[in-house]
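subagent[fold] <- orchestrator: predict structure for attached chain, return tokens only, no commentary.
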Amino acid sequence: MAKLKSNSAWKNLGLALIPVAGLVAASCGGGGGSPTGEGNGGSIGAGASTGSGGAGTAAGSTGQAGSSGKGGTSGTPSSTGHAGSVGTAGATGAAGASSTAGTTGAAGTTGATGTAGTTGAAGDTSTTGTAGSVGTTGTAGSVGTTGTAGGVGTGTAGTTPTAGTTGTTGTAGATGAAGATATAGTTGSAGTGAPPPPTGGNQIKSVFVIAMENEPASAIYGDSKAPYLNGLIAQYAHATAFSDPLPDAIPSEPHYVWMEAGTNKFSDVTFTGDGDSSSGNSTKSTAHLVTQMQAASPPVTWMGIMEGIGSGTCPVSSTGFYAAKHDPFVFFQDVAGSPPSGSNAFCAAHHQPFTSAGFAQSLASGQVAQYNFIVPNVCNDMHGDPSCPSSASDVIATGDQWLATNLPPLINYVNAHNGVIFIVWDEPEGGSPLMAFYAIGPHVRPGYAGAVAYTHSSLLKSVEEIFNLPVLPTVAGANDLKDLFQPGFFP
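subagent[fold] -> orchestrator:
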């Protein structure tokens, strides 16, 4: 029901009516009020000091003060609504409670004060909107809007539309039970703050793996010969516990096969040395990454990008500074043929030569695959070779400079197209099993040094997860690279 706007108004009115109440009590001390009469306080008229029963309907409209007024329990007279304004005779509020208009306060469901519900802290801040919906259905807030109904009888307080307006401010809503239901909206408090970033799905759209050679982590992190790589540490994420999954004596080729299949051991061959692809140095196994990509629906596009190979060929044999042992794809017969052949059309279609200008042009035109495995030649990948130019004698400095030349346009591409670059080394050489590893892209954790234990199995598993492929049994137990990414952006 509607209320007067403030307690002070009640108090002032009460003080003004005390003498009147006393006279009424004195003259009508023995009487009972009629519904439309003066609402005599009867023997309790002495309660003039408390706003004697002459309170009338207006007092009933206040409802709140009912507990303090003993006087006009029988008084509902609207004619003495002024006394009701005293509010102390709220005992007559019972009459107000009986007012049908007061009961229709439930009709407040039509009130616009549903906004009061929406202002419930939980409702507004909940990103799920659950609390907000509760607020809009809050019958209590709407009760405020039907404050005019609360002004049952002729009590002026009830009739004044201001009571209804106070309801819209949520004051009347506070008296309504639905206002309490708005607290149900507090269950939406979990949704406060900014909406969470999207999770799952293919948040990362393209992957570029750059395979470097033969250096332990200690030769890269903090080494003055690798200024570019060390500059990347402050901007992107790197791993401090990326280990070689194979013994130190095992050379390059088995490591590249591992990056493709999660193992170097198959039913028909175990890769333990270096050599070009051949019928005896290849496997019929189809349990490897790019075959999973071919089988996906739709297929995931992929490309081997090798520095030093010719165009339109399947590079099963080493040539110049290109080493076939660094190309994992040519050791799988479902890619390179059985036996592997330089003229295999499927293999040739999934290989292209790397040149700085050509690769930059592919990026600029968007002509790149979803999965790209990039291998510099042996002069640029930190492997080295006696026949490399003398300018490449310092293999770390040469490899760092190659990255400084070719990474900037690639970084620009992945930042603009929601991609990621992984820089990995095949093996550490030199005793320590630890190797450097970088994750570069718009959603990695900047300046982050991840201490989670990784191997090449982690790289393979992560690529499978990024493209929503089945995880090979060989890498199922490996940690993925999620820790290197901002929450919600892996895979």
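orchestrator: received. Logging for downstream: Confidence is low (pLDDT under 50) at residues 1-202. The chain has two domains: 7-191, 206-484.
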